[in-house]
Fold this protein.
Amino acid sequence: MSKNRFFSILLIGYLSVTNVGADAGNGARLFEGSVSFENGGVSCVACHNASNALVINGGTLAKDLTKAISGYGGVEAGAGETVKAMITDSSSMPSPMMTTAYKGKELTASEATDLVDFLVKADSEATAPSNDSNSFIISGVVGAIIIFVLLSIFGRKRKRESVNQAMYDRQIKSSWKESKE
């Protein structure tokens, strides 16, 4: 088997496993940058976050896109088409920073479709935000109480006076008082 044929089979196998095509999985890979945009644009995760199991946590520089589709009225209201139009034309992007970053590096129609599919999936799977700061504080207080209780239990058997004091007392009792008398 020649090298070219081997690598062709390997590439076909990789593409079938990674399921490259118009789907939320490919949109997630485009979003996080594990698959590059055809025109060399910056990955979305550099500035945006989308809370979903398919992608890593992203940047906090720009808007969280977890509920982006709902923010534009939902799928029923044509939000997907609105988002596609915004991300395929650099002049209609929502921020000047995006306009500059994607000028001449616009997303293709298939990339935009994949990204919107991912955003629809992220939106539909999003749960109500939890108040993690309260649970963090409560966990810290409970943890501190447990540590104090354990220290007090294990600290009961510790020696109450220093080892040096015991040696000093033995020395005082035995040697110099006896030699004086």
In short: Residues 72 and 172 are 87 Å apart (CA to CA).
